[in-house]
Design a protein that fits this description.
This protein has 59 residues and is α+β, with helices and mostly antiparallel strands. The protein is built from two helices and three strands, in the order βαβαβ. The chain starts with a strand and ends with a strand.
């Protein structure tokens, strides 16, 4: 199965609790951190919730 790289490019300051929880579930705790995630529907949904904060590339 393919993987994707998810990078947090904007700060979580001022975000809602749910957006912060989604970022932490992806392993993104600070700006610049990169996490490798499986390319599936669950990950796509999480990325969509915080799409304005992250940058996604194919791994």
């Amino acid at each position: 199965m393919a993987n994707i790289n998810v990078k947090l490019v904007r700060s979580l300051a001022g975000c809602t609790k749910t957006q912060i929880a989604v970022a932490e579930s992806l392993g993104l705790t600070r700006v610049g951190k990169v996490s490798v995630q499986p390319d599936n529907a669950a990950t796509a949904g999480k990325v969509k919730k915080i799409s304005h904060l992250v940058e996604v590339t194919k791994a």
